[in-house]
Amino acid sequence: MSGRWNDGHRFADRVAIVTGASGALGGASARALAREGAKVALSYRGNADLAQQAVQEIEAAGGIACAAHLDITDPASVQAFVGDTVARYGGIDVLVNAAGRIDAADAVRFSDVDLDAWDALFDVDVKGTFLMCRAVVPHMEARGGGAIVNFTSTFGNGVNQDNMVNCCSVQYCAAKGALRGFTAALARDLAPSIRVNAISPGMIEANWDDDWEIPAEHVEEAIAMTPLKRMGVPDEIAETVLFLTSDGGGYITGQMVLADGGWTLTG
Fold first, then answer.
1. Which of 84, 88, 40, 85 shows the shortest CA–CA distance to 61?
2. In CATH terms, is domain 15-258 a member of 1.10.1660.10?
3. How many beta carbons lie within 10 A of that of residue 155, not counting itself?
4. Looking at the chain, which terminus has fewer C-beta neighbours within 10 angstroms, N or C?
5. CA distance 36 to 28
6. What's the pLDDT score for residue 102?
């Protein structure tokens, strides 16, 4: 088979959408795709400055990118964003669903779960991913195929029930588990023209205290339980995105790739 292998230009003439591009993982993924030649449409919901900063960095390096507001829970907003991307760049080849809800209300024990928070989490992480996939698939099919990467999560293997880093909360695990099932089923449905995979990051360097109100000792406890004894960095996840959406990952679909430093390793 012919393909573009790892020559640094694997995504030349291809178009990618990255949701959640104001976040660490979305921003890193967008930069990585652009670095290898993709035209990238970045979406943000709450932090335009970070998304625009990523666009400026991409353009300064000679790449092509744009950023726009997107509410992935709103079908009209999704269709408008996807339509604008197609009008601007001519089609869609890659979708990276990096958008996800980050809220301390989701990092709680079962007895403290708030119903509104539960619904909001599923709206963003599950419904939002579904809406994005539904919107881009016709455009990928028009181009002869494409690749989708969803973001799930590790479920954690900790024994401290109050540590929401390594045990993870019930509602968060439920939403991410739904995405695992969605990824596998969608891969079967869209084969052979469109590949669908998921990445399950472990602990990645981020603002754990500010975003999730996770105490430092819980983070340290989780790192101690990780075989690699450190957090991952966003660029490591972005490199995994590149592989799964490139021709080099062309024989992989319906898989959930653990990028967690061995956190959930079983023996």
1. 40
2. no
3. 17
4. C
5. 13
6. 84
Amino acid at 200: S
Q: Which DSSP helix (H) or strand (E) runs through 60?
A: helix 48-60
Closest Cα partner for 144 from 254, 13, 265? Answer: 13
Q: In terms of Cα–Cα distance, which of 243, 245, 221, 132 is closest to 182?
A: 132
Is 172 a residue of the active site?
yes
Could you read off the pLDDT of 225-238 as tens digits, one per residue?
A: 889 999 999 999 99
Residue 181's CB is within 10 A of a number of other CB atoms, namely 12
- State both tokens at 157: 């293997």
Edge-first strand listing for the sheet containing 64-69: 64-69, 39-44, 15-19, 94-97, 146-151, 194-201, 256-259
Strand partners, 149: 96, 197
Write the pLDDT tens digit of every residue in 167-193.
778 899 899 999 999 999 999 999 999
- Domain positions in the chain: 15-258
pLDDT digits (tens, 9 = 90+) for 127-174: 999 999 999 999 999 999 999 999 998 876 777 888 877 777 889 989
How many angstroms separate the CA atoms of 229 and 54, rounded?
Answer: 30
Q: Are the C-beta atoms of 163 and 224 separated by less than 8 Å?
A: no
Given 44, 89, 172, 251, the catalytic residue: 172
Mean pLDDT of 111-132: 97
The predicted-structure confidence for 67-77, as pLDDT tens digits, reads as follows 999 999 999 99
Q: 235: helix, coil or strand?
A: helix
